[in-house]
Amino acid sequence: xxxxxxxxxxxxxxxxxxxxxxxxxADGVVVGRGHNAREATGDPTAHAEVLALREAAERTGSWRLxxxxxxxxxxxxxxxxxxxxxxxxxxxxxxxxxxxAGACGSVHDLVRDPRLNHRVEVTGGVLAExxxxxxxxxxxxxxx
Length: 144
What we know:
This protein is of the alpha/beta class. It is globular. It has five helices and five strands, in the order αββααβαββα.
């Protein structure tokens, strides 16, 4: 999670929300990294999780990331939760919960919906205060 926090800080250079994500394979090797880049790219899908999943698929040569874990500093939104399910990621480790838009246990729970063809094991609240503080600081600075 600390590496995901560092990755998230890279988003600050372009005014993006500091969310960072890593995809780690079964051997503990980071195969994908991402940080929010919507402002930098003008792409509404450029969330940290999506970018990390794309890089991991490219590096592993497969869209199926079934031996991997996604680590992200903020609970994924509905779009990212859908991408996690479609990529067959078995494990999600998240930092701060998102009570406004979270789709992995807060507002929605798409990653564990029994109607879908894949379910994800979720571990939440890892370094939650550090992850939340990074976001609070960003929004405090941008609301002044």
